[in-house]
Each structure stands twice: as C-alpha cells, then as structure tokens.
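User: Could you go from structure to sequence for me? I need the amino acid at each position, not a summary. Structure tokens:
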C-alpha cells in the first residue's frame, strides 16, 4: 500500500512540476525579449552565455514539462530535479549577495517577482516531491492515474497561485 501511495505521489509530482515547467517555458517564450535581461541580472553566467541560455531555457522547460507529464522517467525526473536545484542555487547565491530586488524569471512576464528564500524553498520542495518517482513502482490503475492527474494539477495551480500572489504583493501598486 505504501509503495502504491509513493508511486501515485511521484506521478502527481511529475505532472505538477511538468505543468509548472510547461507554463513557465511558454510564458518565457512569449516574453523572450525580456529573458536575456532577467538571466543577466543574476550575474552568474559570462556575458557570451546569456543569449544562448535565454534562447534555450524556454525550449528546455517546455520539452522537460512535456516529458514529465508524459511520464518519461527517470531521465526527465533527474533533469527536472537538477534544473530546480540550479534555479534554487542561483537565487540563493544572489540572496546571499543582497540582490533580492532582481526578478526571479519564473514566468509571469507581466508580473515581476523578486527573489527570496520562499522561492528557494519552493524549488527545493518541488525537487524533493519528484524523488519518489525515481523509486521502482508498480503500474498504476486507471483510478490511481486519474488521482495522480488531479493531484498534479492541484500542485501546479497552488504553485501558480502562490507565485502570482507573491508577485502581486511585491508590485509597486501594493507597496504603500
């Protein structure tokens, strides 16, 4: 029973994180003119790497999101965990430098969302949620798959909601 619960949780996390990557990648692609500036603000890549990173990141997130949703494990899970850890590390480095004013670049092109420890924790939590998907697991029944789908959509919606609320709270209109 516990093995099945972990399998459903792992599948739900993969779907949820897949949707998050898919939405972020599409949004970054839509606002791709802004992405090089967002990446440059982190001050972690050499100048020559910023444009290629900005060109590749949205496509990587879209492809990775699709692979997670499709259940292409374990490679997509490992890649997603690695990317979430890179994002968390980049934010943590800049927070430690005192550069919390920069936009996280998490999507929401119209809403700037300054980096902070809650975003680092969010990325670490999402990476952790993906770990059960790396364990050997039984095949899921149709009902278990539907449950994982519902839970995955819920994860993505909750992350999107809290990110939007954080971005709105940080907007100049709400800082009075």
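Assistant: Here is the amino acid at each position, in order:
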């Amino acid at each position: 029973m516990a093995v099945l619960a972990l399998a459903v949780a792992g599948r739900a996390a993969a779907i949820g994180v897949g949707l998050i990557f898919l939405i972020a990648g599409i949004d970054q692609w839509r606002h791709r003119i802004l992405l090089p500036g967002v990446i440059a603000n982190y001050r972690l890549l050499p100048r020559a790497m910023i444009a290629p990173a900005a060109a590749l990141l949205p496509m990587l997130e879209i492809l990775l999101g699709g692979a997670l949703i499709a259940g292409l494990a374990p490679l997509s899970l490992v890649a997603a965990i690695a990317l979430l850890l890179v994002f968390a590390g980049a934010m943590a480095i800049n927070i430690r430098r005192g550069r919390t004013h920069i936009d996280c670049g998490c999507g929401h092109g119209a809403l700037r969302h300054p980096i902070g420890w809650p975003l680092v924790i969010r990325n670490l939590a999402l990476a952790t949620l993906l770990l059960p998907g790396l364990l050997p697991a039984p095949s899921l029944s149709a009902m278990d798959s539907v449950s994982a789908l519902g839970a995955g959509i819920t994860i993505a919606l909750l992350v999107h909601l809290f990110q939007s609320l954080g971005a709105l709270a940080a907007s100049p209109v709400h800082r009075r």
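One structural detail worth keeping in mind: Helices lie at 2-30, 35-41, 47-70, 75-96, 117-130, 142-170.
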